[in-house]
């Protein structure tokens, strides 16, 4: 029986109708307030075995049940905290932990491109990520390394490591050595954070290597982008006012022919910045898959305001306009294995409950068209009471999505977020209401790592005798010479494709065409470098 009586949760009419129509089996981090910035969540190797709950002779539901575990407080910093975390997750029948190992340019681990965290709560020499992986895998729970993509520091006291990106490429540097995000009015901090500009080619390369280094050195089941976008602190609905790093601006002018300093709402400038984020996601995904093709690449994506009806509507959404995050393209092009919408809405506020369902419906439509990319609704359990969180799980399941995730383990309901109760008081209650008799997670569920046999990907790079490396249109041609896919090079001249028809293909850039080749499954095919005049 539940440890405390859960108030009856009446199904809304739309939920009940959807539940009757939806299949019984499912297929396969947003603002604290809707007008405020996002809260902080923010040669191929032999594939390793998925951390999947043990199966029985009875069919087990395939459903991602996730829990975000942030590093802004206790949760994964000591062996004792990790013991408790894994036991709690197992009791809830959670099968994926989105564990924050990259907070701000650091790592809660000992072996990564980022320096080890200065957090005094982590015992000397202790490797939280390694310990979490060992303990979670022993219970059949996956660990996805969640890394804040752009924020790198927020304290007036600098990091201790000289190699930390803030020390090496922050306030004390000039010219191309400076990677910091700049607002159109010269502001250098988004809230308390200094951030990296994805339009700076060296900053983008560093970000890519953060994720790859974790995959190379740890048996993680996945990596998760967070805050992979331009910052908040913009007018509601846009335009985005960030991206004015001097090197990024120089690139923009050279690649587009623009002159002067663009206004925030300039459509060419907005499209260019949006493309830089997309390039970063694509190149990181390709690099991760080149190391371990069965590691899941996923992103915690923005769902500000009302949900769109279709992809055309998405291009006009607050997500696209306000923070320049085109996650619909990432899904369509196959850059992600899992899209975790940060569908952070209050169930007890009518407008937000409607928005929650609208974004779920959009995710369901994306899943129908792109069935290889799982769609997960991330719920703000910290903004809701427990009946509200249960309702949102039911709504997510009724919508036909691939699963649900809750933010966060440290703040598991609105009472804890308000400081009126503690996590230790609430977790047993939440566990009973999720996995107890009659709870949505009463039975176990499985979630698998991506099948490497389904991976076909192409990666390449150009050199130029003159002109720019970035902003070049790259076309993928089939045997008949038809264009079957296109993309743009990033600031390092890199490009790639992760979804295209079977058969022999060629790559063409600025009139230069590669030899034809056939990408095979289970690997990322590397195209020989194309030298442009």
Automatic annotation (TrEMBL):
Keywords: Signal. InterPro entries: Divisome_Glycosyl_Hydrolase, GH, GHL10, Ig-like_fold. It comes from Deinococcus rufus. Pfam families: GHL10 (PF02638). The lineage of its organism: Bacteria, Thermotogati, Deinococcota, Deinococci, Deinococcales. Residues 1-34 form the signal peptide. Residues 63-346 form the Glycosyl hydrolase-like domain. This is Family 10 glycosylhydrolase.
């Amino acid at each position: 029986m539940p440890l405390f009586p859960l108030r009856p949760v009446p199904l809304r009419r739309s939920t009940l109708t959807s539940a009757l129509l939806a299949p019984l089996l499912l297929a396969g981090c947003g603002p604290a307030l809707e007008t405020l910035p996002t809260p902080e969540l923010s040669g191929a190797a032999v594939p390793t075995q998925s951390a999947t709950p043990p199966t029985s002779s009875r069919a087990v539901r395939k459903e991602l049940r996730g829990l975000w575990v942030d590093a802004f407080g206790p949760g994964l910093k000591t062996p004792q905290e990790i013991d408790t975390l894994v036991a709690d997750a197992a009791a809830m029948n959670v099968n994926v932990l989105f564990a924050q190992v990259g907070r701000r340019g650091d790592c809660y681990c000992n072996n990564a491109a980022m320096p080890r965290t200065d957090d005094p709560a982590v015992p000397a020499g202790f490797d939280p990520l390694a310990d979490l992986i060992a303990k979670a895998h022993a219970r059949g729970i996956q660990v996805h390394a969640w890394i804040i993509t752009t924020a790198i520091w927020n304290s007036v006291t600098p990091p201790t490591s000289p190699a930390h990106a803030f020390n090496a490429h922050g306030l004390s540097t000039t010219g191309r050595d400076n990677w910091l995000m700049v607002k159109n009015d010269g502001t250098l901090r988004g809230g308390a954070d200094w951030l990296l500009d994805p339009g700076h080619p060296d900053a983008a390369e560093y970000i890519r290597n953060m994720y790859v280094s974790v995959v190379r050195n740890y048996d993680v089941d996945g990596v998760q982008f967070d805050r992979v976008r331009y910052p908040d602190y913009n007018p509601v609905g846009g335009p985005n006012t960030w991206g004015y790093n001097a090197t990024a601006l120089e690139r923009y002018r050279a690649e587009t022919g623009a002159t002067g300093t663009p206004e925030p709402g300039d459509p060419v400038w907005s499209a260019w910045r949006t493309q830089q984020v997309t390039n970063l996601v694509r190149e990181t995904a390709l690099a991760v898959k080149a190391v371990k093709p069965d590691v899941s690449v996923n992103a915690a994506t923005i769902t500000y305001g009302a949900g769109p009806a279709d992809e055309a509507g998405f291009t006009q959404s607050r997500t696209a306009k306000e923070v320049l995050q085109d996650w619909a393209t990432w899904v369509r092009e196959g850059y992600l294995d899992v899209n975790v919408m940060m569908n952070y809405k209050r169930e007890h506020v009518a407008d937000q409950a409607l928005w929650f369902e609208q974004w779920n419906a959009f995710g369901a439509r994306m899943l129908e068209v792109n069935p290889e990319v799982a769609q997960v609704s991330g719920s703000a359990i910290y903004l809701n009471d427990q009946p509200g969180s249960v309702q949102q799980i039911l709504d997510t399941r009724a919508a036909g999505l691939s699963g649900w995730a809750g933010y966060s383990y440290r703040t598991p309901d609105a009472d804890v977020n308000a400081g009126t109760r503690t996590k230790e008081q609430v977790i047993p209650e939440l566990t009973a209401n999720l996995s107890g008799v009659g709870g949505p997670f009463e039975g176990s569920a499985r979630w698998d790592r991506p099948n490497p046999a389904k991976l076909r990907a192409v990666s390449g790079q150009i050199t130029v005798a003159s002109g720019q490396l970035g902003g070049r249109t790259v076309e993928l041609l089939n045997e008949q010479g038809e264009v079957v896919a296109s993309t743009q090079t990033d600031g390092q001249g890199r490009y790639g494709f992760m979804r295209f028809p079977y058969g022999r293909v060629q790559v063409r850039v600025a009139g230069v065409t590669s030899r034809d080749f056939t990408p095979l499954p289970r690997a990322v095919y590397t195209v020989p470098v194309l030298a442009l005049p």
